Amino acid sequence: MKQQKLFSKDFTLIVIGQIISLFGNAILRFALPLYLLNKTGSPSLFATVSACAFIPMIVLSPIGGIVADRVNKRNVMVILDFATSLLMLLFTFLFGSVNMIVLFIVTLMLLYGIAGAYQPSVQASIPSLMDDENLISANAIINQINSLSSLIGPVAGGALYGFFGLKPILIISIICFLFSAVMEIFIKIPFEKREDTDGIFNIVKKDLSESGGFIKNDKPIIGKVIIIVCAFNLFLSSLIIVGLPVIITQALDFSETVSSQLYGIAQGITALGGLAGGILTTTKFKGFEMEKCHVLLSWAAILLIPIALSMMLGLSDIFIYAVILVSVFLIMTFATIFTIKAMTFLQIVTPNYLIGKMISLVMCLSMCSQPLGQVIYGFLFQNFMTNSYIVIFIGAVMSLLIGLASKKVFSVIND
């Protein structure tokens, strides 16, 4: 039976577990790719490794949704956090004794794969604990925790990496994931076991067909929104993922130690924008309708232009960095508001028995363009490093066109 109280014991434990787990995850997402970029100095290699690492997350997201709908969601969280802690312990022992690029690719692929299987369980557990009245607030809190962890993680990671190197970060992440797993053991999530006699592949095929059929026959508007998000991720999200570290650590003239710390601050500011977006969703934007979401996407695209202009005009490195901070903060604010609104819409229109696999399928399809976008931007930055503003202008124009074109879809989303 759903809880009427927002901060019930179980939801509170989920929140605390998320804080601890995501803190370690944020540090790793910051440190491992940055270490690789600093050691190789190649935006193209950095982007390619990041893209390869992202693929398992996309592939395993639907499986994570299927698991979330069939087994106790708490058990999924506990097992995957224990697995992540063990993975990083193994990485720490192998670090420096095997091929660096191979080790990083395999580790990042496993980390992203675990994340892809993990997050649907977290998202799918919320409707089981909340009534409709508290659903938006609960989703906003989960997103704010994500943003807060991403805010603290990169800043701490930047300081640790800049002064002490990678090893302390690995040790902290092992402890964080272990604590999170222990915490999650005490969560109780309502669960009714489903009896399945089919093999895993038949279950995957059946459930994906069921989710796809729901989109095609009952809610085709969801498919159109997925296409929009997919295109937006191709041009804007991929640009931020690749461009932010490349510009700060390679294009701007800062030392390796300083650039690592500045990149950590930039990641923290980006996460702060996500936190602001979560707060605004429950206050100023609480009544913001899905029909107007094209405005959020359009403004996120427009905010890339100041970065490109400051670089094109040859302004000082510290001024360009300040412009980057302001822009990514606002971009993330608008993006988070959009994400919360879209996730809540999906949860409301989807039957409870389909929520887990629908969330995972939507996440999978929405993210499938990001590896391609990362590879493209890695190639572009590799060849236009001295004129990086050209790459940013291209991303801004394409993203803005997508944002404006999405008005036609969002205007009829509730029809």
What structural keywords apply?
single chain; mainly alpha; Growth Hormone, Chain: A; 16 helices; 415 residues; transmembrane transporter activity
Description:
This is MFS transporter. GO terms for molecular function: transmembrane transporter activity. The chain has helices spanning about 10-40, 45-70, 75-95, 100-130, 130-165, 165-185, 200-220, 220-250, 255-280, 295-300, 305-310, 315-350, 355-365, 370-385, 390-405, 405-410. It starts with 8 loop residues before the first helix and ends in a 5-residue tail after the last helix. The chain is globular and about 60 Å long. The model has no long low-confidence stretch (mean pLDDT about 85). The chain has 16 helices and no strands. By secondary structure, the chain is mostly helical. It has a single domain (about 10-185, about 200-410), classed as MFS general substrate transporter like domains (Growth Hormone, Chain: A, Up-down Bundle), CATH 1.20.1250.
Tell me the distance between the termini. Answer: 31 Å
Low-pLDDT segments: none
CATH topology: Growth Hormone, Chain: A
What is the helix content?
over 70%
Which CATH C-level class is it?
A: Mainly Alpha
Residue fraction in strands: under 5%
Number of individual domains: 1
Mean pLDDT: 83
- CATH superfamily (homologous) name: MFS general substrate transporter like domains
> Count of DSSP E strands?
0
Q: What's the Cα radius of gyration?
A: 21 Å
Organism: Anaerofustis stercorihominis
GO cellular component, one term: plasma membrane
Protein name: MFS transporter
Keywords: Cell membrane, Membrane, Transmembrane, Transmembrane helix, Transport
